[in-house]
Automatic annotation (TrEMBL):
InterPro entries: OMP_efflux (IPR003423), TolC-like (IPR051906). Belongs to the outer membrane factor (OMF) (TC 1.B.17) family. It is found in: Cell outer membrane. PANTHER family: OUTER MEMBRANE PROTEIN TOLC. GO terms for cellular component: cell outer membrane; efflux pump complex. This is Outer membrane protein TolC. The lineage of its organism: Bacteria, Pseudomonadati, Thermodesulfobacteriota, Syntrophobacteria, Syntrophobacterales. GO terms for molecular function: efflux transmembrane transporter activity; porin activity. Residues 364-427 form a coiled coil.
Length: 479
């Protein structure tokens, strides 16, 4: 039997070669060749597996944003919609230019068409055409005046292109915010897992101390039970934190267009540096840069043009027309025994709907009401944006204040646990005090990391509220 191990293959084949009769040498050579092939394939597979499972390079927040912008479906969707709007604009431009149409027709009559003439000799029937007639023509039409309908449609299409471009920028801002939020949540989940692991290890060590003190008769057995319960709770928290990290990493991978189970290694966030923020400047920036407001302003412009487009039906439509036609008894229309086979003509055509029971007037009024409704909506969204900026700035300020207080509380909790453990070693305090001190430290560490990474998330939210891809230090300081 051949083993996948290289040594095993060689040993088995060598044993068979020594004990076999003549003719087994050739078989042994083939076996050696296949053995080396299996070894080579196994080595290649091992290298490939190692490459796949090797930890990724450390990912910075900017690298994560760039990767998401290149792969996210929201960006691709916005790009496709922009292309659609651009083609619609080209279609509107083409409507202003001449159009060429062709027509072909074949008709077969039951009898020859004839004309009746009454003369002194009586009634006579004279054939006037063929029973089978082929007709084809080409028509060139140039709009001269359409009540400003075509030019207005062109303007609306151009505004649609501008809307699609702003929507693409809005999608970019959303993706940046999503990625940064997911990025810092992964870092927070990693820190919380570290806190849970540290708490579990310390409580396990404390349980050993409690068991030793109980064996020495220094503490009652219920103190050991309290330590065991605390350790079990810490183990449950540790499992929960592991799952939280897995979910946070999967969310980040989803935004980056990666496999959800792919391991991630992230660069640590920048340290906290207090900065002065100007609410007035941020609000002014939001009114100018928020894509939602820009889209609404463009929609207001479109609604204004829509009023003009609806009113175009009040006017006549005038077209210049050129026609060339052939009619005959053959498919090409070249043979005609009754008239000239070809005809060319130029002229002007006017179409005008004079009365439609107020339909056009109702359409105009509808578009005017829609225009006014969009103006009201714009005013409402502007006030909502200002409130959103104010709330986002408040979140940043709260996070910054929480960082300072949480840092101080963390130092106090560490010192409290140190002192309490020393007191417990000297049996001058109870196990309850030790467990409480460990709980205080766990909570203080969680609060500190939540405030630290929460501040980064709040800044990302503020940038989105203002309508910027990023807020650098110059943007954050009041001017």
């Amino acid at each position: 039997m051949m083993s996948l191990s290289g040594d095993g293959v060689l040993v088995a084949l060598s044993a068979r070669d020594e004990a076999s009769p003549k003719g087994w040498g050739k078989v042994t050579q083939w076996g050696l060749w296949w053995g080396f092939c299996l070894l080579w394939l196994g080595s290649f597979a091992a290298l490939a597996f190692a490459a796949d499972t090797a930890p990724d390079e450390v990912l910075s927040v900017q690298a994560a944003v760039d990767e998401a912008l290149a792969n996210h479906h929201l960006i691709r969707e916005a790009e496709e919609l922009e292309k659609a709007a651009m083609n619609e604009e080209k279609s509107a431009q083409a409507a202003l230019k001449p159009s060429l149409t062709a027509h072909y027709q074949y008709i077969r009559l039951e009898d020859h068409p004839y004309a009746v003439f009454r003369t002194n000799l009586g009634v006579q029937q004279v054939e006037m055409g063929h029973r089978s007639t082929y007709t084809w023509n080409v028509t060139l039409t140039q709009p001269l005046f359409t009540g400003f309908a075509l030019s207005t449609k062109k303007k609306i299409a151009a505004l649609d292109v501008a809307v699609s471009q702003v929507r693409r920028e809005a999608a970019i801002l959303d993706v940046i915010k999503y990625v940064k939020t997911a990025y810092y949540r992964v870092l927070l989940a990693q820190r919380q897992l570290d806190v849970a692991r540290e708490a579990q290890e310390q409580l396990r060590a404390h349980l050993l101390d409690a068991q030793r003190f109980y064996e020495q008769g220094l503490i009652p057995y219920n103190d050991v039970l309290k330590s065991q319960v605390a350790l079990a709770q810490a183990q449950q928290v540790h499992v929960r934190r592991q799952k939280d990290l897995e979910l946070a990493s999967a969310d980040l991978n989803r935004l980056l267009g990666r496999d959800l189970a792919r391991p991630v290694r992230l660069e640590e966030a920048e340290p906290f540096v207090p900065q002065a923020l100007s609410l007035d400047d941020l609000m002014a920036e939001a009114l100018r840069a928020r894509p939602e407001l820009a889209i609404l302003r463009l929609e207001v412009g479109k609604a204004k043009e829509a009023v003009r487009l609806a009113a175009s039906d009040f006017y006549p439509k005038v077209f210049a027309v050129g026609l060339y036609e052939r009619t005959g008894k053959d498919p090409l229309g070249e043979e005609n025994d009754y008239r000239n086979p070809d005809t060319a003509a130029v002229g002007v055509r006017m179409d005008w709907s004079i009365f439609e029971w107020g339909r056009t007037q109702s359409q105009v009024r509808r578009q005017r009401h829609r225009f006014k409704a969009l103006e009201e909506r714009l005013a409402e969204i502007e006030s909502s944006v200002l409130l959103e900026v104010k709330a986002a700035l408040a979140d940043v300020q709260v996070a910054e204040e929480n960082i300072l207080t949480a840092k101080k509380a963390l130092e106090q909790a560490k010192e409290n646990l140190r002192i309490t453990r020393l007191q417990y070693q000297q049996q001058v305090t109870t196990v309850t005090e030790v467990l409480d001190a460990r709980t205080y430290l766990t909570q203080a560490e969680s609060n500190f990391y939540a405030a630290h990474y929460g501040r980064h998330i709040a800044v990302a939210e503020l940038a989105r509220a203002v309508g910027r891809r990023d807020l650098n230090k110059g943007d954050l300081h009041g001017r």
